[in-house]
Amino acid sequence: MAKMGRPICEAKLTEGERKSLETLMRSRTEQAQIVQRARILLLRADGESMEEIANKVGINRNSVSLCLSKYNSGGVDNALYDAPGRGRNAEITDDEKAWIISIACQLPYKLGYAAETWTYTLLTRHINENAESAGYLRLSTISRSSIKNILNEAEIKPHKIQYYCERRDPEFEQKMHDVLVVYKQIELQFDEHGNLLPFEDVKVNTISYDEKPGIQAIATTSPDRMPTLFNGCRQRDYEYKRLGTLSLLAGIDLHTGEAIPLVSESHKSSDFIEFLKILDRKYPDGEKIRLILDNHSAHTSKETRSFLVTMPDRFEFVFTPKHGSWLNMIEGFFGKMTRQMLRGIRVSSKQELSDRIYRYFAEVNEEPVVFRWKYKMEDMSIVDRPA
């Protein structure tokens, strides 16, 4: 009995089919796999053997045979294009992805771990160990990279914490409005050239005030090396010595731009009162001194209130909201001071640090800059001119 062989795979092309395949062969935009299959059909129609076709196309004989078999069973289109729906089905369902995301959105310590945030390794281990009991057996072997890809697609970052500042002051809007009214009043006191307008009423001196505690006095342990021809950068020994800290209490006159400092060993009510006394000596009697300041306890303490009683109608406080220190213009001055003078500072004593701080203020006051507030100023409308 004759042995049954595999069916012979032929390619008998019509003239139209040949022209269509030749067009595909010259295409620069068609998929390489389709171009490759078109070449197989053309070579077979020209009488080439499957071994010769495999060598010319650069594939194995089985791939050539499969292409020709598809042609014999369904024609040119069947040989060129894969049937719809082919390929592996997604291994991870939407329900499984949702479960992974729900785990990533929980706190690890509430699931029995010590960590505050997930690492991908810890998250993968937890999912692998608990997938079967949760009814997701397939996820018991899911890899770390697959979990990371699922979370990236959902834009979930379980290893990160993004901080925010909640407005806990119920009077935030009102206090912000009060501060902005002051800034608007000051703005109305200047003409278009930036010159103060004359007023016949009692003058109000407005001071933007804040403290900068904990300024460190740091000394070097070896002299700095100045730039040379061979090294253009100043060099400093990594070692340093802490000499203690100082507090800076400062205000900016929003009418003149003058900066008013007080360097102190501490940051207490008595220090704040001392600063108020400096202001009292600075401005003429009968003129009100208005301070924009935060809600630090030293500003509202019993000691401070007792002092203010002795000077009725001399001081007026306008408080910024809690977590709203950015509304105080002196914050920008402190930032500038840090960049220009405090960053990288080295001194031999706390007294030298104090002297250099006072020197910085003296330099600033040689050419004072009047600060201008812009945020929401266009929304503010004040009919009456300020006192």
Question: What would your notes on this structure say?
Answer:
It is a single chain. This protein is 41% helix and 12% strand. The termini are far apart. The radius of gyration is 39 Å and the shape is elongated. The protein has 387 residues and is α/β, with parallel strands linked by helices. The chain is built from 13 helices and 5 strands. The N terminus and C terminus are likely disordered. Helix 1 packs across helix 2 and helix 2 runs antiparallel to helix 3. The protein folds into 3 domains: 66 residues, Orthogonal Bundle (Arc Repressor Mutant, subunit A), CATH 1.10.10; 60 residues, no CATH class; 198 residues, Nucleotidyltransferase, domain 5 (2-Layer Sandwich), CATH 3.30.420.10.
Secondary structure elements and pairings:
Blueprint (H helix, E strand, L loop, with lengths): L14 H12 L5 H14 L4 H8 L3 H20 L13 H11 L15 H11 L13 H10 L18 H16 L16 E17 L19 E14 L5 E6 L4 H14 L5 E6 L3 H4 L1 H8 L5 E5 L10 H13 L7 H17 L21
Parallel strand pairs: 1-4, 4-5
Antiparallel strand pairs: 1-2, 2-3
